[in-house]
Amino acid sequence: MADIDIDVDDLERRMEGAVSVLRSEFAGLRTGRASAAILDPVTVPAYGSQLPVNQCATINVPDPRMITVSIWDRTLVSAVDKAIRDSGLGLNPVVDGTILRLPIPELNEERRRELARVAGKYAEGARVAVRNVRRDGMDQVKAAKSEGMSEDDQKLWSDEIQTLTDSAVAEIDEALKAKQEEIMQV
Fold it and tell me: Which residues are registered as beta bridge partners of 60?
């Protein structure tokens, strides 16, 4: 009998990666509370390339309804202001020298429901990614069967991969529930 191993650690790492990406996507969803992660997707044309805002300014959250962006280079103030306005985040910076103040407006009920739906779409994308990793693992098991893996070993590997998948999906569901509760809080 051939000694065949399935790389479960790789499968687990890839599933954890999908959950990690989901958490970072959730961090970017505006919930009515200030968070520096809201500005993560914003890039600024500076020094001949596109830089993330956090590489040309210091981002602070002095209170739950305000973000301040302290720009290091005075010449980039208007570029950062324009990038934030054009980002689609619904934020309107107030320029005060080299500091931009970003008041976080209250969310209305309709916008909260829309954000909850967006969170659900992000979670479904993460579930699909986890299921794709599961499928890759099951394909490895099938390939190992053709190389002489016993049926008992095949069942053990399949069960282990399914357990990993169930665990990752449960983590995604918990994160989604927590994010939706955070969004719908008044």
Answer: 68
Note the Cα 51 to chain centre separation in Å. 19
Widest CA span in the chain: 73
Report pLDDT digits (tens) over 15-37.
999 999 998 888 777 666 777 88
Residue 54 neighbours by CB under 8 Å, 6+ apart: 36, 39, 40
Q: Among residues 10, 17, 26, 13, which one has the least CA distance to residue 118?
A: 26
Torsion sign over Cα 146, 152, 155, 156: negative
> Using CA of residue 137, residue 139, residue 142, residue 148, what is the dihedral sign?
negative
End-to-end Cα spacing for the chain: 62
Q: Which two structure tokens, joined as six digits, stand for 150?
A: 């016993």
Residues 6 or more apart whose CB falls under 8 angstroms from that of 123 comprise 22, 172, 173, 175, 176
Distances (CA, A) of 175 to 13, 21, 109, 139, 183: 18, 12, 21, 28, 12
Contact 61, 91 (CB under 8 A): no
Distance of alpha carbon 153 from the chain centroid: 36
Tens digit of pLDDT for each residue in 174-183?
A: 999 999 988 8
